[in-house]
């Protein structure tokens, strides 16, 4: 195990490529699973379901892994610039591979135009994570950033339930509340903590300007998404207005 972890740190590019191929293999395996009736006869919904299924696997894996890393090595929170462990480094490699794979899936299946926000997000994550892997700086910060994957579990489940037409179910109602709670704590909270760390230590950090500007753009994006989430799930009037305008069954509906 130690030999494998050492090899990963010596060749992070190969580790990222292997992770990307592994998630593509997961995509292939998940295609054998049955699809909900509401998904089967719509090409876009079939693609979206399978894409979200892989994303859910990634979130379950990396969200749990990130929390475990910090629980086992809490000193990572005190020095997010320089401190890391081999397992936390491997986590960043694996997650980077997923984002590369997902971006490729979006582009190669012809959904780039309708998913440009996701591609922008993926580009920022991949560029930042690759810098982290090459320089071995901010690895702990990347681990904290992956706290958002705890919330992503419920975000992906929410969209999958909508694809299956289960918005009226008790499961959707429970997931809606868990999604809101984890969005505030694990997504907004993690972003706020990372932003605070960079601002507080700005003068002593490598390439602090790049990381701060990236964080501010990410902060803006997640606040916009948060507003959309609140409107879609907690404000019936806005939801009814959307349905009245005939956009309920659109691709946009499936991304909100």
Q: How would you portray this structure in words?
A:
The protein has 256 residues and is mostly helical. The chain has one domain (2-255). 76% of the residues lie in helices and 0% in strands. It contains eleven helices and no strands. The longest helix has 31 residues, at 170-200. The chain is globular. It is found in: Membrane. InterPro entries: TLC-dom (IPR006634), TLCD (IPR050846). This is TLC domain containing 1.
Largest sheet entry: none
How does the helix and strand content classify structurally?
A: mainly alpha
H/E series? HHHHHHHHHHH
Overall pLDDT score: 89
> What gross morphology would you assign?
globular
Number of E-type strands: 0
Share of helix among residues? Answer: over 70%
Give the tally of structural domains: 1
Radius of gyration: 19 Å
Count the helices. How many?
Answer: 11
- Would you identify the regions where 5 or more consecutive residues have pLDDT less than 50? 243-250
- Amino-to-carboxy terminus distance: 41 Å
Q: Beta fraction of the residues?
A: under 5%
GO cellular component, one term: plasma membrane
Pfam families: TRAM_LAG1_CLN8
Membrane topology: Multi-pass membrane protein
Protein name: TLC domain containing 1
